[in-house]
Design brief:
117 residues; alpha+beta; 3 helices; 22% strand
Amino acid sequence: MPMPRPTDETKEWFREIVGGPGVLIRPMFGQLGGFVESNAQMFACLFGDRMGVRVATERLEEAQSLPGAVGFPPASDRPFRGWVTLPDGTDDDEVAFWVRGAQEITETLPPKEKKKR
């Protein structure tokens, strides 16, 4: 399955919802990812026009039960553990709620180790 590309409008929306103090937004495989600056860990990512977020273990069942929520990335037989793709049509306030939660849990993770080349 080819990886869908986000529209310019979706990229701008992502920057508005995910961006903020202590956040880096970087391109990833034609998508955008939101990273905690202090530890280089990703907490939100686009997949086409859909948003995926890291979810705290205690909230994972709640996130997965949202109508239309799927693993991240969608249509993958190997989704990221602890990640959810938010349903299409989720309003911006709810998306922001899940993004802030994703950022908070990701801020507690150790720094990502740089891969040796």
